[in-house]
Structures are given as C-alpha cells and as structure tokens.
Design goal:
This protein is mainly β and about 180 residues long. The protein has no helices and 26 strands. Helix content is about 0%, strand content about 35%. The strands form five sheets. Strands 1-4-7-10-13-16-19-21-22-23 form a ten-stranded mixed sheet, with no helix packed on it. It has a six-stranded parallel sheet with strand order 3-6-9-12-15-18, with no helix packed on it. The structure holds coenzyme A.
Length: about 180
C-alpha cells in the first residue's frame, strides 16, 4: 500500500501504486491514476484526468491539472507549472477545450518552469529552471529561457552531450547526434 501522510487528502477512487510516497498536504482527485515508486512532495495537487507512470518525482508545490500525462521516470522540479486552458477568460467556460500535455519518459522539468498546454516534451528532454515551454520539445533536447530555446542535448544521466556524430557520456552510454536529433545507440 502507498505511504500517505496523515495530512494528505486522497479522494475515493484514486489509483496509487504500492511503493509511491505521498507527502504533507497533497490532494489527489478520485479519478487520478498514479504508478509505482513515485514521490509527491508537499502541497502537490493531482487532478482527475491525470495519468502518471512509474517512478515519477514531483517536487513541492506542483499542480498536475486535468489533461496532463506524465510517463515513467519524469521529474517535475519544485513549483513548476502545468496549464490546460490555452486562452483562459474567467467569464468563458473552456472546460471542453482543455489541451493535452504529454511529458515523455525520462524528461526533467526544472524548478519554476511553465509548460503551456498542448505540447509534447520528448523522452529524456531537459527543461532548464524558469523556462517557458510553448512548442513541442525533441527527445534529449536541453531547453532554457523565455520562450524556451534549445541550447544543446542532455544524456539520460543528465550530462551535456557535445558535437555532431557519436559521443559517449560520463556513464559510458553512446549517443548519435545530428543537427536536429539525438538518439541512444
Ligand atoms: C540547464 C542546467 C542544467 C545547466 O546546464 P549546463 O550544461 O551546466 O549549462 P550552462 O550553465 O553551461 O549554460 C549554458 C547556457 O545556458 C544558459 N542557461 C543555463 N541554464 C539556464 C536557465 N535555467 N535559464 C536560462 N538560461 C540558462 C547559461 O547562462 C549559458 O548561457 P551562455 O552560453 O549565453 O553563457 C541548469 O542551469 C538548470 O537549469 N538546472 C535545473 C535545476 C533545477 O531546476 N533543479 C530542480 C531540482 S532542485
């Protein structure tokens, strides 16, 4: 059974993996699905229409709103922000217009970054602290700034990858880089 702190509120029906840890003041809505081995830090909110894979780390003060999907091994830095309405107006109900955000396996989202809804963040991409992501992000891309621009590539271990062609990171894993792509060999 998941480890859930006594101050957390887990609505009836939520699915939470056995070895997942839920820390202080978390709120999980009843239709959320959360995998195994995850950690939900203090003051995290998980909406109903949310699917979270295994081994996902969500740091303090992150709200995972409806229409967000997080695959396995995703890291959400403290106070980063998801969105689900592209053009919100308080007087206009846009609940039928949510845009889906997909964060693929192994991606890291830096502290205080914002992900504008409707984008896909590729496998093992790395979003720098404070970036605003408003376009799809290629696998392994390192993105920084407002709006986020690609400044390089990051390995699965979180090392910068340099050059074009084959390169090996500090963990001994080899990647093939082109001007526009990165793949693990
Ligand atoms: C991206 C990061 C990993 C640094 O990677 P790095 O390979 O060491 O990059 P560098 O520091 O050499 O920076 C490369 C360039 O990007 C810029 N840059 C790096 N991080 C940036 C950021 N978050 N926002 C804006 N610009 C950034 C640098 O200023 C530098 O610019 P320059 O070439 O004009 O001088 C780090 O800055 C970062 O954002 N880490 C995330 C930390 C975090 O959120 N942790 C959460 C858990 S506590």
């Amino acid at each position: 059974m998941a480890t859930i702190h006594s101050t957390a509120i887990v609505d009836e029906g939520a699915t939470i993996g056995e070895t997942t840890r839920v820390w202080h003041w978390v709120h999980i809505c009843g239709e959320a699905r959360i995998g195994d081995g995850c950690s939900l830090g203090q003051n995290v909110f998980i909406g109903n229409d949310v699917v979270i894979g295994n081994n996902v780390k969500i740091q303090n003060n992150v709200s995972v709103y409806d229409a967000v999907r997080l695959e396995d091994d995703v890291f959400c830095g403290p106070s980063m922000v998801f969105t689900n309405v592209y053009n919100p107006r308080s007087a206009v109900n846009r609940k039928a217009e949510y845009r889906q955000t997909l964060v693929r396996r192994g991606a890291s989202l830096g502290a205080n970054c914002t992900v504008v809804c409707g984008v896909t963040i590729g496998e093992h991409a790395f979003i720098g602290a404070g970036a605003v992501v408003n376009r799809d992000v290629p696998a392994y891309a390192l993105m920084v700034g407002v709006p986020a621009r690609q400044v390089g590539w990051m390995s699965e271990a979180g090392d910068r990858l340099q050059g074009i062609g084959r390169t090996t990171d500090q963990a001994g894993v080899t990647y093939e880089l082109t001007e526009t792509s990165c793949r693990r060999l």
